[in-house]
């Protein structure tokens, strides 16, 4: 009886394990588990070409009940979107209209993005985000798109210059700016006559020149190298000895006298420049001291900053004391207003600044998504989503969960370690029109924006709270 009971228990345990395995497999299939992967995290594309950003989906249920979204650094910049396998063109940023498509059939798991006619402005971090709508499970891959210009075939020029032969090397349509080097008779030659110019299309033109002073310098090699791809375009040339000019003894005598005269003139110029440099240094010291005094005065007497409830986004509310912005709708729905932000969760403050030096502080606490800075009255209030950049009349720094950024062009990472609970804002409109952000605990400078608006244009305090934000509170004189 003991052995029979043991065998019966073993069979029951085997049936239970089999049933559990089948149940787990069925649960995984129903829950919509999937994986998302990419072959490369960086793609290099030439200006004007078509490129592919690889992304592959492994799913047991295809795209049914799935949302696929390609977007740039900020979530609001939609490049391409699918809902339940159908493309949603209404959410697509107009910049990408007619320029994007999926390389293959998304239903088969190929979510590779094809981007046509690549331009310099397309360079960015691209996110492929896939979400199971019912289970809210999601996966994401990020690919950096690097845009380059490979340059044109160089044009050479050879001509006489004084007692030497000048060789010029001109090439266009490069990005980033290329690197130039020369070799004469097999050895490298340094030159300070390289000129890199910005073209109207954003690419670079390089013009370089060397001088050959001796008939022995007849074997020349000039080459330009792309800093990203490493591709080098060069030309070999041979200059005949008969092309070099010859001088008579009278010419050498004239050169000797001319050199003496030039040396005297140079000494005079050096003396004049020395006097001028001393004057400039004194003026710089004076300006630096004046700026330091203005900064200290502003910090010692911070501005009284208040919020403007009539500008606050409908999902934000302003406390009765007008110094606290909260991430929740007001009790009474706000009335429509031309001054109110309808697209982004923003709010403006008072007073309006057009000149002078001003300082205030913003208490952030544990807020995970915020932006602090200034904006002009020309800032966009409604319509399509937009970036917080100086081009949109906004100069601010921000936090997006774990990322602290200065939203400049291009963006810059802030030197913040760990948590920062308060930001100091110093606005100087008396001279260079700058705004500088500080850590008021250590007084370390976090970032400085230059050219804040045009002369005569007023700016106002600017605030943004993301959906993961909490509250921000203004701290100024008397607050």
SS elements, strand count: 33
Indicate the low-confidence ranges by residue numbers.
14-31
Question: Termini, distance in Å?
Answer: 87 Å
* Large-scale geometry: flat
Radius of gyration: 33 Å
Report the average pLDDT across residues. Answer: 85
Q: Class by helix and strand content?
A: alpha+beta
Helix content: 10-25%
What is the percentage of strand-forming residues? Answer: 35-45%
Biggest sheet features? 10 strands, mixed
How do the strands and helices of this protein lay out in sequence?
Elements: H1 2-31, E1 34-37, E2 42-46, E3 51-53, E4 56-59, E5 66-71, E6 78-83, E7 86-87, E8 100-102, E9 113-115, E10 124-132, E11 138-150, E12 155-161, E13 164-175, E14 179-184, E15 187-189, E16 195-198, E17 204-212, E18 219-225, E19 232-238, H2 249-300, E20 306-307, E21 317-318, E22 324-326, E23 346-350, E24 357-363, E25 369-376, E26 394-400, E27 403-406, E28 412-413, E29 422-428, E30 434-439, E31 444-449, E32 459-465, E33 471-475
Parallel strand pairs: 2-11
Antiparallel strand pairs: 1-4, 3-9, 5-6, 5-10, 6-7, 8-9, 10-11, 11-13, 12-13, 13-17, 14-15, 14-18, 16-17, 18-19, 20-23, 21-22, 22-33, 23-32, 24-29, 24-33, 25-26, 25-32, 26-27, 27-28, 29-30, 30-31
Structure characteristics:
2 helices, ten-stranded mixed β-sheet, flat, seven-stranded antiparallel β-sheet, 479 residues, 33 strands, alpha+beta
């Amino acid at each position: 009886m003991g052995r029979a009971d043991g065998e019966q228990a073993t069979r029951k345990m085997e049936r239970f394990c089999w049933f559990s395995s089948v149940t787990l497999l069925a649960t995984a299939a129903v829950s919509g588990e999937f994986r998302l992967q990419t072959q490369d995290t960086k793609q290099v594309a030439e200006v004007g070409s078509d490129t592919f950003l690889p992304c592959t989906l492994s799913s047991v249920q295809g795209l049914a009940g799935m949302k696929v979204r390609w977007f740039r650094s900020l979530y609001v910049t939609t490049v391409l979107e699918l809902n339940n396998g159908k493309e949603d063109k209404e959410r697509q940023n107009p910049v990408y209209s007619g320029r994007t498509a999926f390389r293959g059939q998304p239903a088969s798991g190929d979510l590779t993005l094809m981007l046509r006619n690549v331009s310099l402005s397309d360079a960015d971090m691209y996110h492929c985000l896939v979400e199971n709508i019912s289970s809210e499970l999601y996966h994401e891959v990020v690919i950096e798109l690097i845009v380059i210009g490979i340059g044109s075939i160089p044009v050479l020029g050879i001509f006489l210059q004084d007692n030497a032969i000048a060789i010029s090397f001109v090439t266009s349509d490069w990005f980033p700016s290329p690197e130039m080097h020369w070799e004469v008779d097999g050895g490298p030659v340094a030159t300070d006559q390289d000129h890199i110019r910005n073209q109207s299309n954003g690419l670079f033109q390089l013009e370089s020149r060397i001088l050959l002073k001796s008939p022995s310098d007849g074997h020349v090699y000039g080459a330009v190298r792309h800093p990203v791809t490493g591709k080098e375009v060069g030309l070999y040339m041979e200059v005949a000895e008969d092309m070099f000019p010859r001088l008579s003894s009278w010419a050498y005598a004239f050169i000797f006298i001319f050199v003496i005269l030039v040396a005297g003139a140079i000494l005079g110029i050096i003396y004049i420049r020395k006097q001028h440099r001393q004057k400039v240094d004194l003026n710089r010291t004076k300006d630096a001291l004046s700026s330091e005094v203005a900064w200290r005065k502003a910090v010692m007497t911070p501005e009284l900053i208040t919020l403007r409830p009539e500008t606050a986004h409908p999902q934000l509310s302003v406390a009765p004391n007008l110094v606290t912005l909260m991430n929740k709708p007001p009790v009474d729905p706000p009335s429509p207003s031309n001054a109110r932000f309808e697209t982004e969760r923003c709010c403006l403050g008072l007073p309006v600044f057009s000149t002078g030096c001003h300082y205030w502080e913003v208490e952030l606490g544990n807020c995970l998504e915020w932006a602090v800075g200034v904006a002009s009255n020309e800032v966009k209030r409604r319509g399509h989503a937009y970036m917080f950049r100086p081009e949109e009349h906004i100069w601010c720094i921000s936090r997006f969960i774990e990322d602290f950024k200065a939203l400049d062009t291009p963006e810059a990472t802030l030197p913040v370690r760990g948590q920062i609970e308060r930001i100091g804002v110093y606005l100087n409109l008396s001279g260079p029109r700058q705004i500088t952000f500080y850590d008021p605990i250590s007084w370390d400078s976090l970032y400085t924006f230059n050219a804040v608006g045009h002369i005569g244009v007023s700016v106002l305090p600017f605030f943004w709270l993301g959906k993961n934000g909490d509250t921000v509170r203004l701290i100024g004189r008397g607050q």
